[in-house]
Amino acid sequence: MAGFLKRFGPKLAIGGVVAMTALVVAISVDRQAFEGRAAPEAPVPEKAANAASPAPNSSAAKPPELRSDQGMTVDPHALRVKRVLKIDGPFRHGDFAWDEKGAPSTGRIIVTVDLRAQTLSVFRDGYEIGAAVILYGATDKPSPKGAFPITQKIADYYSRTYNNAPMPFAQRLTSDGVFIHGSDVKWGNATHGCIGVPKDFAEKLFGVTKVGDLVVITDGKMLDVSKATVG
Q1: Residues 49-68, mean pLDDT to the nearest whole number
Q2: How far is it, in rounded angstroms, from Cα 22 to Cα 227?
Q3: CA neighbours closer than 13 Å in the CB half-sphere of residue 37
Q4: H-state helical runs in the chain
């Protein structure tokens, strides 16, 4: 469902021409049956991200601050998926799911974003605990691709560039101002490169991540989830 994952869905089902317009249309993301497939080649790295990241609550050095064009590659073995959430029916803009039952209470958090499927997933120790439909960058301000560590978390943040726009539960990914943050996730809306998620979901995500956790942003590239369970 999310970037670097070939999994239980979702695929964006769009009738007609895809465009960022103000038309009120029913856009849905379908969760379809997955088939395992190895990860394709990732972008050329600035630095390599791998499974040897510090454990939660360890005294680690501050993660590197990367520009949008410096996304890291990821060791595919670091993103082994053990379980995906079961989401029935269409997954529309503004929708999200959150279910930590059956997942470990501790473990490494990895967030994946698939720009093509317009979805984000959050995994703890390989178990998906949350998923949401997202907003992403417009054509003139595209969202970056690659892996970025969270370098800053601010619960009550306002944009310094775009008219003091509210960005609740903001989590900085790049030194040039790309965040994951709460947004009004509606069809037709876009961001200036940030990843916008429903506000309630943004708060939940903010509550489980820490500085240094990895966010992997792709445009349809998938990972093997052939051994993942659903539910």
Answers
A1: 62
A2: 41
A3: 13
A4: 199-208
